[in-house]
Design goal:
With about 90 residues, the protein is α+β, with helices and mostly antiparallel strands. It has 2 helices and 2 strands; from the N terminus they run ααββ. The radius of gyration is 20 Å and the shape is elongated. The chain starts with 14 loop residues before the first helix and ends in a 10-residue tail after the last strand.
Amino acid sequence: MPNEPNPKPKPELSFEKGLERLDKIVQDLEQGDLPLERALELFEEGMKLSGNCRRQLEEAENKVELLVKKAGKVVAEPFPPNEVEPPS
């Protein structure tokens, strides 16, 4: 039905597809020849995509773990987000 009160939300795009779509939106907006209403629609879509991509990156970052040998055991520790080299 076209006038469903609660339509199903669109499935979330993969990070790569979301980034591709976001890039296309930026290109379209930078051209500056869109009607205001369309530009606002694209801006809103871009903000949602940006948030989804950021969340997906944060989730991936949280899954990355460093394996550290401690007392003869391999222990998984969360990966520090800004650390370049693993601890010695």
